[in-house]
Amino acid sequence: MFPSNTIAWYTAKMFVVRSAAFLIGLIVILESLDLLGESGKILAAAGNGEAELWTYVSLRVPQLVQLFLPFSVLLATLVTLATLNQNSEVVIFKAAGISAHQILAPLFIAAFVIAVGNFAFNEAVTTRATAQLKAWQDNEYRRTPAASTPVQESWVRGGDDLFRATSVAGVGDATLLKGVTIYDRVDNRLVRIVMADTAQPVADGWRLANARSFDVASGTVKTAPTLDFASVVVPRQFTTTSINPAFLPLWELRPQIAEQRAAGKPVDTLVAAAWHKISGPLSTVLMPLLGAVAAFGLARSGRLFVRAVIGMFLGFAFFVADNFMLAMGNFGAVPPVMAAWAPFVLFLLIGEAVLIRTEE
């Protein structure tokens, strides 16, 4: 893999230094522009000053690192390989018997190390910073959250029936629903609306207190002190909370996905997000392969710039495809694993095909 350790260290060092330089430059520029847009909102909150501006920067920078690190690696790949080509160093490497894959191998190893570091940083730092920033922004950048009563309204579907509860308390058999409305449907047709003050789980359904039942066909209303309503809806469907994958590290997200699945709630979006927490950072490994077209071909042929543009096009095409497939996964149009991994596998094959066809 490494016919020359000297060449391997030389190319890997060039690649890593340029990746860091591009990342720092992008972060400084983008964070400066972002801060200009948000500083007015931050300082508008009573008591906020310079310290709060730096707090915003510390919470926003991890998000920018997560978003733009793959772009930085792509740009670093193009500059590194184009420089080697321009200086005829690629010709020297090939004359020494080093193949195209062996020239790129140090970059692959360095990119994989960057990907591992990026994954660890995203899960340990970015998730926490994102949750804190979102809560701060929802509170309009005030120092202390405004006192408010949390809304606990919950909608649940079981078979054709829809349950609505204005508040939920307790767990398991002790679950208590208040302000209950049940839309009793048969073959997606509404036949009855049942309302009750409270509902508690019983065998094969729920026991409603102070129930009022409206029959759609006859237009009549019946009341009963208690009413047992048979349903496949179980208490944990009400007690499992909504999950934002951006706020949770992978090792906390996976158990919560299992809990949501056990409660009968859709989890395809969460599964796609969980897989993307791995495939996203790992996309940096693809960048040396997609940008490899800039390394080969004679520099004096005048096509080095065209090759660099082609490499940049392949890299940005991957990011477009990745975001598109993730959106399709969120809509449920494709399986979650395909949504997270299909762009990675596709562009891995494209990059290898181009490299083997032209250089190997």
Describe the structure in your own words.
This protein has 360 residues and is α+β, with helices and mostly antiparallel strands. It folds into two domains: 5-144 and 267-359, no CATH class; 160-231, Lipopolysaccharide (LPS) transport protein A like domain (lipopolysaccharide transport protein A fold, Sandwich), CATH 2.60.450. The protein has ten helices and six strands. Strand 2 and strand 3 (176-186) form a beta hairpin. The longest helix is centred in the N-terminal third of the chain and has 40 residues, at 5-44. The protein starts with a helix and ends with a helix. It is a multi-pass membrane protein. This is Permease. It is found in: Cell membrane.
Give the C-alpha Rg: 28 Å
Strand arrangement in the largest pleated sheet? 1-2-3-4-5-6
Q: Which blocks of ≥5 consecutive residues have pLDDT under 50?
A: 146-151
Estimate the mean pLDDT confidence: 86
